[in-house]
């Protein structure tokens, strides 16, 4: 399970696209599944990864506006142990202003 606390400095975000990659496999999820009202931040997300994978994970969170355009991106990575939880704090920014800090819970 991946739990991330997300902050965003990009205005007017309607959806997040989260991609979690590990071991040559990738899971992608849209939050919410169908774009609706403008999202509020900071936000907390919990993703359940398929199977019982472990090892290094890379997380990309993309902010999508009402025109379905990517307007910001945040990156994080860490070590995931099967059946355990990894906590990530992700800042979404435009251009090169994105940064991330990582907290792991074991």
Structural class call reads mainly beta
| E-strand count | 8
The average pLDDT value, as a whole number, equals 81
Termini Cα gap: 12 Å
CATH class: Mainly Beta
Low-pLDDT parts are: 96-106
- What would the CATH topology be? Immunoglobulin-like
Largest sheet: 4 strands, mixed
Q: Which second-level CATH architecture applies?
A: Sandwich
Features:
57% strand; 106 residues; mainly beta; elongated; 8 strands; Immunoglobulin-like; disordered C terminus; single chain
What does this structure look like?
By secondary structure, this protein is an all-beta fold. It has one domain (2-103): Immunoglobulin-like (Sandwich), CATH 2.60.40. It contains no helices and eight strands. The strands form two sheets. Strands 4-1-7-8 form a four-stranded mixed beta sheet, with no helix packed on it. A four-stranded antiparallel beta sheet has the order 3-2-5-6, with no helix packed on it. Mean pLDDT is 81; it is low at 96-106.
Ordered list of secondary-structure elements with their pairings:
Elements: E1 2-8, E2 15-22, E3 25-31, E4 43-47, E5 55-64, E6 70-80, E7 86-92, E8 99-103
Parallel strand pairs: 1-7
Antiparallel strand pairs: 1-4, 2-3, 2-5, 5-6, 7-8
Provide a concise account of the structure shown:
With 106 residues, this protein is mostly beta strands.
